[in-house]
Amino acid sequence: xxxxxxxxxxxxxxxxxxxxxxxxxxxxxxxxxxxxxxxxxxxxxxxxxxxxxxxxxxxxxxxxxxxxxxxxxxxxxxxxxxxxxxxxxxxxxxxxxxxxxxxxxxxxxxxxxxxxxxxxx
Length: 121
Known about the structure:
This protein is mainly alpha-helical and about 120 residues long. It has two domains: about 1-80, no CATH class; about 80-120, no CATH class. It has four helices and three strands. The protein has a three-stranded antiparallel sheet with strand order 1-2-3, with no helix packed on it. Strand 1 (about 90-95) and strand 2 (about 100-105) form a beta hairpin. Helix 1 packs antiparallel against helix 3 (about 35-50) and helix 3 (about 35-50) runs antiparallel to helix 4 (about 55-75).
């Protein structure tokens, strides 16, 4: 009976650690604010889960790959260009070669505006 409850507790620790990792992974605001730190934290957590034996090596590898992909997306600016079909998403962006562009972050976060510099063409 005691072995069964230990097994359940071990699986609960494993699931809690994986859930915490994905909560950090899904934190777009943190990733957007500091991609390097976000990436390092994801890698450290994956390494710690591996060290504690909470994940298999293939799971550890997959977590690290996800962290790397999220980092590459963040530094490419993909987190700033999330649009919904209705345009009511986290970010709205409009661009035109001959018009000014405006990125508005809904929910009162901030707004960034810039004018295209027309070179006379």
